[in-house]
Amino acid sequence: PRPAPRADETLAQIPPPRPPMAAAASTMLESLPAPLLRALRLKTKQQELLLRVSALALIYVLAFAVRLFSVLRYESMIHEFDPYFNYRTTLYLTEHGYSEFWNWFDHESWYPLGRVVGGTLFPGLMVTAALLHRLLRALSLAVHIREVCVLTAPFFAANTTLVAYAFGREIWDSGAGLVAAALIAVCPGYISRSVAGSYDNEGVAIFALLLTFYLFVRAVNTGSLAWSLAAAFGYFYMVSAWGGYVFIINLLPLYVLVLLVTGRYSQRLYVAYNCTYVLGMLLGMQIRFVGFQHVQSGEHMAAMGVFFLLQVFFFLDWVKYMLNDVKLFKSFLRITLTCVISVGTLALGIGTASGYISPWTGRFYSLLDPTYAKDHIPIIASVSEHQPTAWSSFMFDFHILLFLFPAGLYFCFKRLSDATIFIVMYGLTSMYFAGVMVRLILVAAPAVCLISAIAVSATIKNLTTLIRSKSKSPQTTGKTTGSKAAAKGAVDQPLPFQHNVAVALLLGAFYLLSRYAIHCTWVTSEAYSSPSIVLSARGHNGGRVIFDDYREAYYWLRQNTPTDAKIMSWWDYGYQITAMGNRTVIVDNNTWNNTHIATVGRAMSSYEDEAYEIMQSLDVNYVLVVFGGVTGYSSDDINKFLWMVRIGGGVFPVIKEPDYLVNGEYRVDKGASPKMLNCLMYKLCYYRFGELTTEYGKPPGYDRVRGVEIGNKDIKLEYLEEAFTTSNWIVRIYKVKPPKNRS
Amino acid sequence: MATPLRLAALLLVLVAAFASAARADLVVSRADRKVDLTSHIVRVLTSLKVENAGSEPVSKVLLAFPNIQAKNLAAIRAFGTEGKVKGLSSVLPIEVVEPSGVPPELTFFSASLHKPLQKGKILHLDVLTVFTHFLQPFPEEITQADSQLVVFQDSSHYLSPYPVKVQTLSIRLPGGRVESYTKYGNTKLVDSELKYGPYEDVPPFSYNPIIVHFENNNPFAVAKELIREIEISHWGNVQITEHYNIVHGGARLKGEFSRLDYQSRPYARGVSSFRHLIARLPARAHSIYYRDEIGNISTSHLWSDSKKTQLEIEPRFPLFGGWQTTFTIGYGLPLQDFVFSADGKRFLNITFGSPMEEILIEKLIVKVVLPEGSKDIDVSAPFPTNQWQEVKYSHLDIAGRPVLVLEKPDVIPEHNLHFQVYYKFNNISLLIEPMMLITGFFLLFVACIAYMHTDMSISKNSPSYLAKLQWDEVQATVQQIQGIFHQCLAVHDKLETSLHDLSRTGDAKSCKAARKAADAQFKELAKELKPLLLSVQSSPQSYQIWPKLDDLVAKERELQDKLMARHATVVDSVEKKQRGQDIENRISSQQQKIAALRQEVESLLEYLSEI
User: Fold this and answer.
1) CB contact under 8 A, A77 and B596
2) What is the pLDDT of residues B561-595, one digit of tens each?
3) For A137, nearest residue in chain B (alpha carbons)
4) CA B573, CA B571: separation in Å to the nearest integer?
5) Domain span holding position B172
6) What was the ipTM of the complex prediction?
């Protein structure tokens, strides 16, 4: 509203039509050469593009940079267990070339069985890293393959943000895409598997997974063959990278089925699914490890069934169109359906009965039924990342996304389309799987981010339009306002404090989002950036104490044992021993042979003389155990021991779990069962530990992990001798003595 | 232990045979030998007083060693002065010779004198010999608790082709237990110093074996191989990378290694092991790292002052006898401290050996990596080495960097001398790599621009392609139209300002002129606008925009009219000298409409620009 004019002045009250700032700016602009300025001034669209591109670029950099905590805090090194195998194979690939790698028989693991590495791994990750390495070499950048391996996961995580943006734009709008990119860039659920150094299949697989889904949704939206083809190649990359491709090959048919049931069948869907499925299947067969599973394994049958169903659907559609008679068509439909269903069931029945179609694997069962593994396959249940997810880890990994997820689902249902149905299904199924297994939070992370991004973007957009229209409304109260504004005004009327509430809500949203960012950074730096091979703790004076015992032991093995020495340890350390120690191991993290692992478990849980026979039969030269009693490192072999007993007992009934327990309680102190106190694992861990004082004021032989004084302090070894113990006692290596001369 | 005895017997037999060959006209009037056995590198300093008893001047002095010693001989240096009193000594060149009639069990070196020794004159000759692998551990395997015992074998008589009048031998031991030593007449052990002699009038080639068995727990650090890479960057850095493969060369560990014993009593249990090595780096060394094949090693300490940088590195595990480890240390040095230029050539002047203390290197390979484009490479080393050239490819190299490789076996701290590598290098070559990068990125951007501006569609007459072309055209035209409207708006603003001026100055005339000018401009712009609008209208792709555009044109026309009308009213009123209040009243309704119209026009323009 204009100020009331005053009487004593002339003419001065003509109000400038625009706010003074703008006028000043315009006069300033006028003083400059006009055409030049006009050329320089960006149109709104260009401004938006510039903003979008720079935001994306920043997100890209952020996604990469936030994953470098571990490199800055420790060093450029490979983390955990499995990545060491991947690193070793990549090294082999770069040194020997692809065909050698493809035909590689690794005699350093699973002694005496060995492992056909080329045929039992997903080569996607290694090939990717090797290609990146070759590319950099071609650009004459002399980087070591280790650096490439360390940075592969962050690089692909950064690429994932771009895919998330495109996906978000496809299912909602570019705003949602941007938010999705930003959310996924720092989402802890994803960061946990993609920090620098965590050189694992998941690092590239999540990128491939999201890419495949995006391309498929795009293909469904456009009905274009080109996008379907791209989706098939995305699927191929996923198959080559990770066993999680089974999720795709089951989600896509489920999605198609849902679309069919909800009456959303279209020509576009037909083209997209058929092309992607057929080509993807053929491409997937090129991976040796997968082979003919697409046509032979029970887990892949759903996709094939839906493929045939689509053909039938299409055929019926065509017949309906040609017949143009409802009655005739109905009878035809009845006949066709009966035929098809009976043929399908027959084929499946014969296939299963004859063994051509293999039944579902244990892992697959354990996903559908979380209690399955616990009862039937202890080796799967024993892996810590296969445990059911606790609420706290959901909160830890998703933070506010956990609350935004339902909100996003609401928005998706409000604006239902082929694309939103897909993301809803992806979100719901992956959330279920994330609940079954901790590690599958990773698969759920992109879906949760995308759905939450829809919630955030839609909410903020609504709020900002409210604020904008409100601030404009005083000027547009005139009669000439457009119909749109009028309609909005009509809605606006009943809510008096709308503007303030909108501002408050907006601030709240920004507060939540900033909390999310802070939480993610904190989680990344505190929880997910530890290489787990170098341990660190706070010293008495607040300084950082580094326990580098693992590498100390592995390097000792590498340098000071015969090159053909065979090392026996629990399977967890197999990959690290072969990669860092360069020695042959009996079992490793590729847990393909349960019996072999059970044999090791049996040796560890037997008395020394029995164990000696087993070790002799396996040609074992050294035994490696991990022991945390001195430092208080809790994930040591004594704490894992019950699983060795269980897995060993699963194959060799001589080993009985109750023998190691006292009244169902697992203990290592004086009250422990005699079998426990004299089994090989106990002896190797606590050999001469009884003489050591670990904590002031405690008796010697005080185990700092279990918090008890050990029960057997006088351990004598007859068939083994201590070969090496690391400076903090975390890794202990024993040498198996040669058999005594017969007298 | 049988070898020296047999050798001695053989020598005695042979003495007579080649006494004549040894040119007995030189006589050693005094020989004092000092053997240092404190470390695993054995240093023997022999001070000789040589007298020419013959008639002819002598220009060479022969030094004899048994082959078993000679094969372990890492360095031999001789310093000589002539005259009764010892003065400034000069280094004498030494070479291996094979005089006729000598037994094959002996190796002879000859020190050439700078000027022949005249009859009756006396020469003071100091010979420093350094032996490796001289001390044999005995027993060869010990437990963790044992200390390391070694055996030293030599002769109590100085082995010489010349008769020796007076001689002594003193052996410095590291100070521990002495298990046994060969006792002859005048032998005494005082405070870890073992003395033999003096012996008088010993004939040539006299060999009197002695064996000393003693405790030596000093680190027997032996580098099986050391590769030192010295990389010169003319951006200001000399980067040194040293790859060590170190082994404990002493008695091997047998039985258990108990960490408990080692932790609780490190000096009693584990006395023969060593857990750290000390490297003395140049003073301005920076960016020091210490790692191995599986990563960084966090156990190292660094002290530095203005004279030196001392790096104490601790391998991942203590080294017991027979244990080995490999690691890499690297550091940067300022270029100006080590690379100089003279006579149009540059040269690197740096020490040859390892910075580690008391380390024996069985095979040392020094690689000098010169910058890409270096020419005329030349080396001058103080001792003979195997040399060859390689090429190394590093970041952004095309031709590769020339690498000069020097190889030398059995390198000891005495070899830690400076050597020089001369080469020619043009500073312009420095800029090649940055220029390459700049060009690369430039080409990348050019390619991007070219890609954005080229038409990559395959079929040029498909309907969608044509539609796209038309749409582009419409967009271009709409952009022009927008430009015109912006000009219109600018003219509106001018009118406003003229009204402002009027309120300030009351100059109605100029105000009128402004209106006239604006009118003319409006007409001109309308003329420009017309064909553009027509073209948009005729295009089939404009069905979405056209209504908006139409609306915009109408609104703008109305706005123009309203503005002109108001302008006219105000100017009129001013000319009629009406009161401000009245003018205000008259135009207030117009004012509101104008503001509303203006807003609408602007929002329409915004809408258009968002297409």
Assistant:
1) no
2) 888 888 888 888 877 777 777 777 777 777 888 88
3) B395
4) 5
5) 23-137+146-210
6) 0.82
